[in-house]
TrEMBL record:
Gene3D superfamilies: Acyl-CoA dehydrogenase/oxidase, N-terminal domain (1.10.540.10), Butyryl-CoA Dehydrogenase, subunit A, domain 2 (2.40.110.10), Butyryl-CoA Dehydrogenase, subunit A, domain 3 (1.20.140.10). It comes from the Eukaryota. Its cofactor is FAD. One of its GO terms (cellular component) is peroxisome. This is Acyl-coenzyme A oxidase. One of its GO terms (biological process) is long-chain fatty acid metabolic process. SUPFAM superfamilies: Acyl-CoA dehydrogenase C-terminal domain-like, Acyl-CoA dehydrogenase NM domain-like. FAD binds at residues 138, 177. Keywords: FAD, Fatty acid metabolism, Flavoprotein, Lipid metabolism, Oxidoreductase, Peroxisome. The active site is at 425 (proton acceptor). Residues 279-440 form the Acyl-CoA oxidase C-alpha1 domain. Residues 17-132 form the Acyl-coenzyme A oxidase N-terminal domain. One of its GO terms (molecular function) is acyl-CoA oxidase activity.
Length: 665
């Protein structure tokens, strides 16, 4: 009972309107209403229970996932849910499965790359789930290097077909989610070869893999699951698959032909659009991964914050209560920047969604000018937010001490499910190198008078930013958005310019890129952190209703920025943007901001509006009733079904008897 009181007391200390903050977090009143309704719907449905997930063997786990996915689909149809509601329902069902790839990559790929006729043919089937699709790009031998893929699609003019073939073991498709056991169809990336034996590079094709009658693989197709992955439960609910083609024939019109076409005569026709549009689905998914990062980070932070308020260690005097661990400055210094990052990623995710919608509209009007920026922003922010989120989930586990290591804390499985986000949809380092390439191109065009726009507009003020020195004289001077922005812009500019100067010393730019890759990655990170800081500051320019809500967000924005400054002090001081004295003032200010966050911490994580079902964590329970529930949970473990364990007679008893005999000797 005592623990329950702790959180009620915490909630009573909040200095802002939590209900209004929930709406800010959700993005709008409508989004809040849908999210809230769908999360409760899932939480109240026993089929979506997930407390036994980590204990099930793979086959049972997978069958259970199929059952949940089928049940989710049944509810979506019965309740006539909108696309938005359906996607929220799947999100809160919280179990990676084939439907993510079907709705998240297969359908968007057809929408983005299919002609009107192709969309008319395939989309209705996909929308009704009469076919199930996946995204088969990566191969055993190549993932990052998409241009290096080996699967071939050779045009046969005699039959008006493509022959899909896996010429080597390394060309086997490897990893696609949903492929292993479920998908009937796949978008397959293969090198297009036309009669003249010319290789036109990688293109997307729709290939049927399994019979729609008995689910058996079609002739020429070898398909299966790639095996168990990291952690128990976790991502093993997904059937990541392998796939080989032995001269499989598909009709010509199953090449997705919006961007380029092969005619009946075998002529290759490239529409007047950049060939990189074939990578468009990856840009779309990277943008959704940024939005997901804030959710996963918020989930871990919610657990760690509530538990830190419940947990007490040391500090009792005269038999009084001990100190809540959340009151230790070290705990605050580790936890509150993560809380601030969750909010920061939420807002940059909202902005990225806007950017993606904007570039999509422009592409429809044949304006390709913002495509490189959209690619750089989605790649860079995907990399930054997933790296921080993965590291932060582990930090939250440590913040919960020993109990964080228990499965029922929810953190081990969250970690295991989340960490592949640093790899899928582009390895995070490979993606940062793309950002660096974009930055180097922008810097190299400055002398010709080219004015950078969008997120690189600050580089247009390169001369000022190379010279400026921060004016901060006292700690409170850091509480000024333009002061903060200026130092982040100056640091990003100076790191990029230094890289560009070093690159110019190489005779061949590609050689320089390889040699300077580590510095280029640091410049890319600085640029991406600047984007996050600036979008948080922009968010604060909006009219944000609700008592104290804006003030809390302001505090979190400064925590986010000043903590980054502290962590990357080397960059800021070495590039001369700030002095060591100013750095120390920033740290003083940060400490004082932690004191402002402290009374609001529990309410700030309540604002995520997560149900106990979604959190699936005894440590993060809303009521804070941690110890009785931990005690109860321990007894549910299969090992505790019998008092004496299986194996006692074979292995423990003989051992004990042996020792007894030895002792007597
Ligand atoms: C229950 C909780 C679960 C939570 C999870 C929820 C989320 C669920 C979502 C997904 C589940 C996982 C699904 C995973 C799917 C996958 O992983 S699919 C496979 C993804 N693969 C990759 O991302 C491969 C990475 N590699 C690449 O993207 C590229 O090849 C590259 C490395 C970026 C480029 O290599 P390269 O230099 O060889 O590139 P080229 O093809 O020669 O092109 C060069 C120029 O093009 C520009 N470019 C590159 N990519 C793009 C793009 N996408 N858009 C626009 N422009 C692009 C590049 O900058 C070069 O431009 P330049 O010539 O001007 O310099
Ligand atoms: C859980 C999961 C789900 C997936 N789902 C799908 C799916 O549905 N469909 C699909 O097609 N694929 C899928 N993938 C594959 C995924 O997209 C690739 O694994 C990813 O793009 C990374 O490529 P890779 O495996 O080739 O890594 P590699 O490129 O081999 O990376 C290995 C190491 O080399 C480094 N490296 C590589 N290139 C460079 C370079 N140029 N410079 C510096 N360092 C470099 C990387 O940083 C990394 O440290 C999935 C992967 C996972 C883990």
């Amino acid at each position: 009972m005592e623990d329950v009181d702790h959180l009620a007391h915490e909630r009573s200390k909040a200095q802002f309107d939590v209900e209004e903050m929930k709406i800010v977090w959700a993005g709008s009143r409508h989004a809040f209403e849908v999210t809230d309704r769908m999360s409760r719907l899932v939480a109240s449905d026993p089929i979506f229970r997930k407390d036994n997930r980590t204990l099930l063997p793979r086959k049972e786990l997978f069958k259970n996932t199929l059952r949940k996915a089928a049940h989710a689909w049944k509810r979506i149809i019965e309740l006539r849910l909108t696309e938005e509601e359906a996607s929220k329902l799947r999100f809160f069902a919280d179990e990676p499965n084939f439907t993510e790839l079907h709705w998240g990559m297969f359908v968007p790929f057809i929408k983005g790359q299919g002609t009107d006729e192709q969309q008319k043919k395939w989309l209705p089937l996909a929308y009704k789930m009469q076919i199930i699709g996946c995204y088969a790009q990566t191969e055993l031998g190549h993932g990052s290097n998409v241009q290096g893929l080996e699967t071939t699609a050779t045009f046969d003019p005699l039959t008006d077909e493509f022959v899909i073939h896996s010429p080597t073991l390394a060309s086997s498709k490897w990893w696609p989610g949903g492929l292993g056991k479920v998908s009937t169809h796949a978008v397959v990336f293969a090198r297009l070869i036309i009669t003249d034996d010319r290789d036109y590079g990688v293109h997307g094709f729709i290939v049927q893999l399994r019979s729609l009658d008995d689910h058996l693989p079609l002739p020429g197709i070898t398909v299966g699951d790639i095996g168990n992955k990291f952690g128990s439960g976790a991502y093993n609910t997904m059937d990541n698959g392998l796939l080989r083609f032995d001269n499989v024939r598909i009709p010509r019109d199953q090449m997705l032909m919006r961007i380029s076409q092969v005619t009946r005569e075998g002529k290759y026709v490239q529409s007047n659009v950049p060939r990189q549009l074939v990578y468009g689905t990856m840009v779309y998914v990277r943008q959704t991964i940024v939005a997901d990062a804030s959710c996963a980070l918020a989930r871990a932070v919610c657990i760690a914050t509530r538990y830190s308020a419940v947990r007490r260690q040391f500090g009792s005097q005269n038999g009084g209560v001990e100190t809540q661990v959340i009151d230790y400055k070290t705990q605050q210094n580790r936890l509150f920047p993560l809380l601030a990052s969750a909010y920061a990623f939420r807002f940059v995710g909202e902005w990225l969604k806007w950017l993606y919608t904007d570039v999509t509209q422009r592409l429809q009007a044949k304006d390709f000018s913002t495509l490189p920026e959209a690619h750089a922003c989605t790649a860079g922010l995907k990399s930054l937010t997933t790296t921080v989120t993965a590291d932060s989930i582990e930090e939250c586990r440590k913040l919960c001490g020993g109990h964080g290591y228990l499965s029922c804390s929810g953190l081990p499985e969250l970690f295991a499910v989340y960490i592949p986000a640093c790899t899928y949809e582009g390895d995070n380092v490979v993606l940062l190198l793309q950002v660096a390439r974009f930055l180097m191109k922008t810097v190299s065009q400055l002398p010709s008078g080219m004015k950078p726009v969008g997120t690189t507009a600050y580089l247009g003020r390169v001369e000022d930013l190379m010279q400026c020195h921060s004016t901060v004289k006292k700690a409170e001077d850091w509480l000024n958005p333009s002061v903060v922005l200026e130092v982040f812009e100056a640091r990003a500019t100076r790191l990029s310019v230094a890289c560009a100067q070093n690159l110019s010393k190489f005779a061949k730019q590609e050689e320089g890129f390889l040699e300077l890759a580590a510095d280029l990655v640091e410049a890319a990170v600085a640029h991406c952190q600047l984007i996050v800081v600036s979008k948080f500051i922009e968010k604060l320019q909006e009219d944000i209703p609700g008592k104290g809500v804006k003030e809390q967000l302001q505090t979190l924005c400064y925590v986010y920025a000043l903590n980054l400054l502290h962590k990357h002090l080397g960059d800021f001081v070495a590039t001369g943007c700030i002095t060591p004295k100013q750095a120390s003032l920033a740290n003083d200010q940060l400490r004082s901001l932690y004191s402002q966050v402290r009374p609001n911490a529990v309410a700030l994580v309540d604002s995520f509006n997560y149900t106990d079902h979604y959190l699936s964590s005894i440590l993060g329970r809303y009521d804070g009733n941690v110890y009785p529930k931990l005690y109860e949970e321990a007894w549910k473990d299969p090992l505790n079904e019998s008092v004496v364990p299986d194996g006692y007679h074979e292995y423990i008893r003989p051992l004990l008897k042996q020792q007894l005999r030895n002792a007597r000797l």
